[in-house]
Amino acid sequence: MSIEKTNEFRPKIVAFCCNWCSYAGADLAGSSRLGYPADVKIIRVPCSCRVNPMFILRAFEKGADGVILCGCHPGDCHYTTGNYYARRRMTLLFSMLDYLGVENGRTRVEWVSAAEGVKFSTTMNEFVEKIHSLGKNVRLEDLRCRN
Amino acid sequence: MQELVTRAKELLADGTVVRVLGWKRGDLSYNPEPAYFNSQEELEQFVYDGFCGANLSKYMIEGSKKEGKTLVFLKPCDTYSFNQLIKEHRVDRDKAYIIGVGCRGKLDVEKIKAQGIKGIQNISGAGIEEDTDTLNIRTIYGDKTCTYGSAMLERCHVCKGKEHMIFDEEIGESKDTKDADRFAEIEKIEAMSPEEKFAFFQKELSKCIRCNACRNVCPACSCRKCVFDSNQFDSAQKANVDSFEEKMFHIIRAFHVAGRCTDCGECSRVCPQGIPLHLFNRKFIKDINELYGEYQAGADTESKGPLTSFTFEDAEPGIVVERR
Predict the structure, then answer these.
(1) CB 3.0–4.6 Å: which of A67, A80, B71, B116 could bond B20 by disulfide?
(2) Domains of chain A by residue range
(3) What value of ipTM does the predicted structure carry?
(4) Could you tell me which CATH class the domain A13-139 is placed in?
(5) Interface with A, mutate which of B196, B228, B244 (most A CBs under 10 A)
């Protein structure tokens, strides 16, 4: 018996999920038996505001094909205002990436509450599909990190 | 210029200030450098002409830690940076005696060289009091001339105005040299296709030698500890030109000063490779102006920066796609 090797493109997706809403939302998606692609790797952060623009760029540099940031809905932040700051930062960062000629669609922000298991699952499915259509990320990758 | 020296000597003599922060003559006539002057004799070296583009406000971070008051000469655009540093509690207003100096646009020797004028020995007409529109350049190939405007730094073509935002006294007349739209270049790039944009920035940024001059000269970029000095960042050296590292460095550099950048243009001025770094900073400024309301960093010392405040109705990050 051998493991079959396919050359099919499997995107690497990094999802930054806030501890209080989106991570719990992912949990709910799991316990409700809602599927989302295994290409999504979740990184738990205390708050969407914890995500430094560098985290996102680093993920791309290390070979991610798409990065999605999930946090509490505006107004629902566990720390009251964190996601409002994150929203401004990410808007500016995404605009800059667009300005540099990176295909937009590789980055996304979505607000997912702890009760929105369905939204989490559909968002991830949509996002993976989008990245699948965009293909491999070549513009943001660091050659030295390629294996 | 003599007026500035005389006034500086007076202030040193009566003990108002204990040192002077200004520019001194460099090795070549067109590269004066920032310098401290501790005595009246040293002030003989003082120079202030069209090539004194250096923004002295950043030096006041160290100046504020020294004993006694420092006399600092600031051009109108430098005062924005100084105000921003006051807002961030990086400089001590009481430690500085600010003389707002006049400015009629600063010169860029690279712009002169780009006009085919090489082997420069001496340039006259760059003085601050001289009211000529022509620069007379003595080169090893004979005398050449060019217009003052054609040799001006990029930032002077989009001058923020001739008013000093903060000063103790003003000496000299300023001229508003604005003759171009600040965001025209940005809009041109925004209109390109993603492939063209990528190619454009790849071409510009692959010139980067990671000398960190843009970071070191920037008045806003003055953290005690810098992420780019961290060995965790493992990119302290020049990387493969085709990789993302240069872009990441420049995105992060610009992002760290977003909302605090006064658009003083020092980064582009000092870049030894001539990378138009202001394109990054100005893109953030343009986005901030469009999305969160007009904001000029350093215009005052009180207002909240756009990235340290928010409104409930802010645009969602998806707007980036929708705007296109």
Answers:
(1) B71
(2) 13-139
(3) 0.89
(4) alpha beta
(5) B244
